[in-house]
Amino acid sequence: MSNIVVDKSKVPWWVSNIIVPLVNLTLALLVSGLFIFIAGENPIEAVKLIIYGSFGYIQGFAYTLYYTTNFIFTGLAFAVAFHCRLFNIGGEGQAYIGGLGVFLVAINLSFLPIPIVWLLSICGAFLFGAAWAYIPAYLQSKRGSHVVITTIMFNFIASSLMIFLLVDVIRDTNQMAPHTVKLPEEIWLPSFEAFSGILGIKIRYSPLNLTFLLAIASLFFVWFLVWKTKWGYEMRAVGHNTQAAIYAGISPHKNIIIAMCISGGLAGLLGVNEILGVSHKIQAGFPAGYGFTGIAVALMGRNHPIGILPAAFLFGILYQGGSEVTFEMPNITRYMFVAVQGLIILFSGALENLFRPQIESFFVRRLNREVNA
Amino acid sequence: MVSPILELTDINKSFGHVQANKNINLKINKGTIHGIIGENGAGKSTLMSIVFGLYQANSGSIKINGKEINLRSPRDSIINGIGMVHQHFMLVENFTVLENIILGFEGETVFGEKLQKAKEDLEKLCQTYNFNIDLDATISDLSVGFRQRVEILKSLYRGAEILILDEPTGVLTPQEVDELFKILRSLKDEGKTIVLITHKLIEIMDLTSEVSVMRQGEMVGHTKTEDTSKEQLAEMMVGRSVLLRVDKKEIKKGETIFKVNDLSVKDDLDVTRVKDVNLEICSGEILGIAGVTGNGQTELLEALSGIRKVESGSIELFGEKISDQNNFLNPRMLKEKGLAHVPEDRQRMGLISDFKAHENLIFGYHDQEPYSKSAILNNKEISEYSNKVMQEYDVRPNSPNLITSNFSGGNQQKIILSRELNENPKVLLVGQPTRGVDIGAIEFIHQRLIDMRDKGAAILLASVELDEILSLSDRIIVMFDGKIVGEKENKNVTDRELGLLMAGVA
């Protein structure tokens, strides 16, 4: 198997960027189906439920897009750092601290005109997330402390810090639970049902809100940053070949810090969705694992915004459809879908090159035959 | 007549298109110190790696004590009594000497009596050969010289009768070299056979009784050391291949624009690699630096181009001090002042192989107009420029969107060259411009360098290819051990003269 050598220059882009991920995804879903079968449920039925749950009715679809929003932020966060070859697995903590940023800005500046409050809150989320990523970035660039280690630690620190704040400093003192007061209603981001109301469609509550558009804008922002600006160029140069970057006068220190701060900032934007859009207060543990799932989203999306969008959507479907399945099928627990996510990560990340050589050589041979014929 | 302990017959080995060893025949007698000498890339290390089982020969046979053997891995070689001390030591830094020596052969020796016995055996070995090593010391606490002894001890403990040393003195201080030679002589006296790979003539004359010379993958001569001289060996080593003469106009030397005063530079391991170097380059002149790899040329170029810190001394461009120990300009600032650099190692430094060709064509100039405007890359300009320049430099295939690693070495070098020459630099630093480049591209690259010179650039050319230095340079300096050991106008200089200087003889 390792003997297959493929001339990379002859592999069409769509084979390595579309066919291979699709094959990996299919395999992951087949194995997941097997699990569901072993658990005593019908995999076909489960798939039907997933599709119904995530597309079948408008509220379900809104939930799917709400999850997608979070995954876009955390997936982009991972991808930006990865282009500088930094493995930022601190998205979880950066999102948590980003939430603090949104809340503090929004509650203290709520007297300003509403659009300005929104804009400043978004900046707050970005800056707080970036600041939380800055420390590991600094340690990496100046002291060589590996970001994988430090960002994991910073997830724990963020979690402890937030619990402390939520219990002792910013808790809503009228009650005992670790959450803050609600933001004033007039600065909440408009929700999906408010929009539908304007159009005359009445739907039940869903968490989807205006942040979805911010996520789409972030996709454009990252694409532009990484491929169209000299900053992105320099980040990629440092990531691919640090020695060469130094030769060209590009500072690795500076770029490590920039990449990590943008990465942290994007993760921080998750706080906009959760706090300004959905719960309107900081609740303990609100990032709920989105930061980690973002790694899988980025890996599956090949760290490119065009890939991250469908990957985030896919995970949105799994989250929303998955909860539908666990509701309908008593043998399938929530953790089953954690396993399904795990399988997707396994096949599209760790085993990514399992079938790549075969698939690529298959297409190269076929295409060559067509050329010769 | 003594029968040889090691006999190689018609060994051939190629890597891709490059034939590293061609029909090598070699006999090594028992109880001798046999030197193998040749320039870098002559195929010495490849040959010895075949003997040690790291590579397999494409054809040919290896006999030990008259018996033909098949060496498939280092383990086979060790069983057959061959030991090798590599240029880069293979030791686990946080293990003790003892642990390192029994590593891989621990079998039953890890615990109790057996370990004690191993230790006693080793202590005996140490005494016999005056090794003077503490077996319980941790490797990371030992100096380079001692680490090398650990490697030798390791081979001996594993029953080596033939000990191969690959450039053993490269990393040692002169005192450590003396100690090493003492040990090697006492090993010989005890009946061991030693094969010494080196490019240093002095060592050959000092230590060996027989010597074989390799050049460009071929064995060009065997002789007894007492029957030869340094001069004769140098001549064999360098060879008298035909020079690739380039058409060159008479030099039109301008004023001095680049000046280096008493420059010293340290490498990453804090070893001083450039020692008090002084040089001047005038516009319209090519100054060639000849020398065997690893004599400080790399560090010199890196310091001059702003990549490496200057330890002491200074660098001047147009009479303005650009670098000294306290402050130095980074490569980008130097580029703005008109200094361009074609680095020695294009894979490691000159290019990003995963980038597309057009991205590499602006590498280092990416933040200048017209390639980018207020931080946004101007793709239209970049692609127009790429198309133009790739045509001009005949880069094949002419596709700016192809990933750079898909280009051949010669074409990658053209990408770098076109980028660095495009801005019409005042000073051009060039390291090994034709390493791994096919002959067609070599001529092209040489012609471009001459054109730059005729346009009035000051060019510093470092190359291990003597032919290249001789055919391009107007003036030649030779570096040995970080110092400039000779300077000659390139008139009636012979490769032989330079060869002697390069080997640190003259």
Could you provide a short overview of the structure?
The complex is a heterodimer of chains A (373) and B (506). Chain A is 74% helix and 0% strand.
Write a structural description.
The complex is a heterodimer of chains A (373) and B (506). Helix content of chain A is 74%, strand content 0%. Chain A has 16 helices and no strands. The two termini of chain A are 28 Å apart. Chain B is of the alpha/beta class and 506 residues long. Chain B has three domains: 4-238, 3-Layer(aba) Sandwich (Rossmann fold); 240-338 and 425-506, 3-Layer(aba) Sandwich (Rossmann fold), CATH 3.40.50.300; 346-422, no CATH class. In chain B, the strands form five sheets. Chain B has a six-stranded mixed sheet, sandwiched between helices. In chain B, α8 (230-238) packs across α17 and α14 (409-422) runs parallel beside α15. Chain B is elongated, with a radius of gyration of 25 Å. Chain B starts with a strand and ends with a helix. The chains are: A mainly alpha (373), B alpha/beta (506). Chain A binds chain B through residues 8-9, 228-231, 233-234, 236-237, 240-241, 243-251, and chain B through 305-307, 330-335, 341, 343, 348-355, 359, 363-364, 366-367, 372, 375-377, 379, 402-403, 405-406.
